[in-house]
């Protein structure tokens, strides 16, 4: 039975060696702490950031456990499209676009995980899931924020940008709000959207790996004694990739649009 | 052999009925959900309402421990213990404020979870997994034979009674945990959850985000509901046959995502300002007038929890342990 429903099986056939998993998470925690030290950790987040993260996490919970879970039943079970998961990807990217501080990803996923426990899973298996989800999915988003210097998807602050040239190459009608006009001065729009799409695609692709690799390959046997099938793991990664990349592109662009609509 | 076997032996009836089953099977829980529970029902079983019965007096930590133990017992014992646990926890909903209504909602939610869970698992479960529970594949009762091209969608060639039982068994594990998890949300004030997280030394910033999320979940259902109704009020699906209404509902639901999100995120600023003006995070910790205490009720609950653990151990000793491998879902 183990502790809190964790069986602690580390020698199932085909299971990823625990040393490797430990090494990954040790490095991930080190990176997280390094980031935290640089940016002031939780103090670096304003109250507004925390509210955004809370709302984003709540939306992910509603999507993954209620709305998306039922929408997903309209599609035959397949490894290519996972409505619940793709919705979470979208929402987390949008939150990252709004907050734009290193640590957003980890914190969002951590809060999502705790809310998911409160509303759906109960706290069984914790803290494994908390560590696993925030230091894989969350960390990838934070790496993007760090790599872009706090401007994920090419979104920088909308404030204080002077209006320039006023190029309106994109025919699609937009709200035409003030933020929108200010924004158009910041970067040539197709480039802005293109950049958002590319960054979204890269992180989306990264999001395809943790679940098959870490969950199916290690945590499932570790927690519940599930069996490991490497053929399935490799196929699942390949099957996840297109959907996650496409959703990453959509999420990258949508993050720009929503950040603009919210005026953040 | 089942008496309706002639239906799947004929190619025409097999195809028609398979597709009907395919849609009926997947759509049925959704139709049930939309027509009976509605989004307002979700709002009601994810939101705290004040009350005075014993569940409201319990320490939130006790409720969490209860949830965890229910999860452990349900996942390490034979399926019918999970089913009994589900039923027992469901009856606890009667003690809540508006108990009868909440009981009806949780019953519907459980029914949807069970039907959806069974249907989501049974047609895809290969014999190799079923064999771990029901060792003799030749004794399986075939309930339905799918057309051969259904395998493209990941369906097994035949649907057996054993696969259905397997799906049902797994879904009882989900419902037991779901019911006990929601019990905490329904009977604990956000302030008490805040105190609980503070007590276990979760940083203030994290606790704050969790609480924002906790309060936002029922609100999302409310906003979704409004947004969908507004679209219908503006004439979506007007004069169309009633049968396609569910699809319009889904369409309106998808369209409602972005407006709901933008609305919530825009409102975030007011929330942040009101928290800041009340001196949020001026200090690292908060002083609290109310202290979470462990009362008589908690001790009674601890006895029940210990009883559950003993039950788990006994069940495993007497061969009523987990008979299904956990394949995950």
TrEMBL record, chain A:
Mind listing the UniProt keywords for this protein, alphabetically? Membrane, Transmembrane, Transmembrane helix
Origin: domain of life? Archaea
Q: Where are the transmembrane segments?
A: 20-36, 48-68, 80-99, 106-123, 135-155, 191-209, 245-263
Statement: the UniProt record of this protein carries the keyword Transmembrane = yes
Name under which the protein is recorded: Uncharacterized protein
Q: Which organism is it from?
A: Acidianus manzaensis
From TrEMBL, chain B:
Q: Name one GO cellular component term.
A: plasma membrane
What Pfam families does the entry give?
Answer: CbiQ
Q: How does it sit in the membrane?
A: Multi-pass membrane protein
Q: What are the entry keywords?
A: Membrane, Transmembrane, Transmembrane helix
Q: Where in the cell is it found?
A: Membrane
Locate the transmembrane regions by residue number. Answer: 20-42, 54-72, 78-96, 103-122, 246-265, 299-320
The protein's matches in InterPro entries, at most eight in alphabetical order, are given as: ABC/ECF_trnsptr_transmembrane
**What protein name does the entry list?**
Cobalt ABC transporter
According to its UniProt entry, this protein's organism is Acidianus manzaensis
């Amino acid at each position: 039975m183990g502790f809190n429903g964790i069986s602690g099986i580390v020698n199932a056939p085909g299971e990823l060696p625990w040393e490797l998993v430990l090494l990954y998470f040790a490095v991930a925690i080190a990176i997280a702490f390094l980031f935290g030290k640089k940016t002031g950790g939780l103090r670096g987040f304003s109250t507004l950031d925390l509210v955004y993260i809370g709302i984003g996490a709540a939306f992910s919970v509603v999507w993954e456990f209620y709305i998306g879970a039922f929408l997903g039943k309209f599609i035959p079970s397949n490894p290519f499209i996972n409505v619940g998961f793709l919705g979470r990807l979208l929402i987390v990217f949008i939150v990252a676009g709004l907050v734009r501080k290193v640590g957003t990803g980890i914190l969002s996923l951590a809060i999502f995980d705790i809310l998911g426990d409160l509303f759906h899973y109960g706290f069984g298996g914790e803290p494994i899931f908390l560590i696993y989800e925030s230091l894989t999915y969350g960390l990838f988003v934070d790496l993007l924020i760090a790599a872009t210097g706090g401007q994920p998807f090419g979104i920088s602050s909308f404030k204080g940008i002077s209006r320039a040239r006023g190029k309106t190459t994109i025919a699609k009608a937009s709200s035409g709000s003030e933020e929108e006009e200010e924004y158009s001065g910041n970067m040539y729009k197709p480039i802005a959207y293109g950049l958002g799409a590319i960054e979204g695609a890269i992180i989306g692709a990264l999001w395809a790996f943790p679940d098959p690799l870490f969950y199916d390959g290690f945590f499932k046997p570790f927690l519940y004694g599930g069996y490991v099938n490497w053929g399935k793991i490799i196929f699942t990664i390949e099957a996840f990739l297109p959907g996650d990349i496409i959703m990453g592109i959509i999420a990258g662009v949508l993050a720009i649009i929503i950040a603009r609509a919210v005026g953040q | 052999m089942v008496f309706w076997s002639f239906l799947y032996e004929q190619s025409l009836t097999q195809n028609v009925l398979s597709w009907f089953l395919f849609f009926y099977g997947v759509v049925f829980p959704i139709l049930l959900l939309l027509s009976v529970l509605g989004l307002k029902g979700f709002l009601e079983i994810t939101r705290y309402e004040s009350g005075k019965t014993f569940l409201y007096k319990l320490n939130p930590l006790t409720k969490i421990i209860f949830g965890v133990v229910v999860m452990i017992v349900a996942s390490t014992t034979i399926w019918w213990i999970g089913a009994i646990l589900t039923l027992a926890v469901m009856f606890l909903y009667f003690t809540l404020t508006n108990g009868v209504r909440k009981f009806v909602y949780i019953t519907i939610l459980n029914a949807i979870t069970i039907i959806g869970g069974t249907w989501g698992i049974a047609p895809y479960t290969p014999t190799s997994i079923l064999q771990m529970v029901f060792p003799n594949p030749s004794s399986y009762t075939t309930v339905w034979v799918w057309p051969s091209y259904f395998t493209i969608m990941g369906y097994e060639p035949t649907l057996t009674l054993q696969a259905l039982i397997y799906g049902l068994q797994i879904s009882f594990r989900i419902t037991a945990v779901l019911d006990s998890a929601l019990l905490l949300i329904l009977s604990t004030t956000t302030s008490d959850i805040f105190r609980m997280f503070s007590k276990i030394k979760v940083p203030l910033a994290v606790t704050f985000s969790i609480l924002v999320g906790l309060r936002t979940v029922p609100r999302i259902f409310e906003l979704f509901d409004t947004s969908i109704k507004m679209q219908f009020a503006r004439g979506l699906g007007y004069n169309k046959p009633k049968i396609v209404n569910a699809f319009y509902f889904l369409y309106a639901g998808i369209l409602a995502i972005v407006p709901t999100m933008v609305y919530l995120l825009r409102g975030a600023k007011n929330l942040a300002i009101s928290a800041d003006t009340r001196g949020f995070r001026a200090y690292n910790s908060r002083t609290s007038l109310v202290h979470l205490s462990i009362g008589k009720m908690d001790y009674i609950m601890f006895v029940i929890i210990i009883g559950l653990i003993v039950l788990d151990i006994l069940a495993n000793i007497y061969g009523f342990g987990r008979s299904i491998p956990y394949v995950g879902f």
